[in-house]
Amino acid sequence: MLKSLAIAATAALFATTASAVPATPEAVEALLASMNTTDIVTETIDDTIIRIDGTRQGYNFTVRLMDCTEGTNCVSSMIFATFNMDARPTLTDFTNVNEYNDSYPFGRAFLIGDTETDGYLVGVDYAVSLTDENTFGADEVNLFFVILNSFIAHMQETDW
């Protein structure tokens, strides 16, 4: 049922006309702010990667703009959210992540980390190619939140 809901919500998102902005850090920041995103912080990772963190609907998330050239738009982006795990992942955790990836049409769930660093994280991401239009819009952000909500519902169903 959740898969059907996610697909229906996705179809509804694409049926509406949403604003799109040039894929520059400044334009994406302004778009996120206009979409009720708070705590926006932008960090330059290197000459070609910009990370924009924010909070929306109670969730912390990140927009990572990649393949950026100074003075022009970025070519690709990824939106993701991660959650700290209380313990080392079990086989059940890996199975639940794989089931999500096998069952939902958008987004990719993942588990990362190790005990030598900051511990383990579970999360979901959505990659967006910007090469054709070089725009990033509300549709992409809204679709990510459909993906994020379906991921959270799936993981809660499996006693995450």
Main sheet attributes: strand count, strand direction, barrel closure = 6 strands, antiparallel
Number of strands: 8
Rg over alpha carbons = 16 Å
Describe the strand arrangement of the main beta sheet, using strand numbers: 2-3-4-5-7-6
Distance between the termini: 19 Å
What's the gist of this structure?
The chain is α+β, with helices and mostly antiparallel strands. Helices cover 36% and strands 39% of the residues.
Keywords:
alpha+beta; Yope Regulator, Chain: A; 4 helices; single chain; six-stranded antiparallel sheet; 160 residues; 8 strands
Task: Describe the protein in words.
The protein has a six-stranded antiparallel sheet. Strands 1-8 form a two-stranded antiparallel sheet. It has one domain: Yope Regulator, Chain: A, CATH 3.30.1460. It has helices spanning 2-15, 25-34, 91-103, 138-157; strands at residues 20-22, 38-46, 49-56, 59-68, 74-84, 108-114, 119-129, 135-137. The protein contains four helices and eight strands; from the N terminus they run H-E-H-E-E-E-E-H-E-E-E-H.
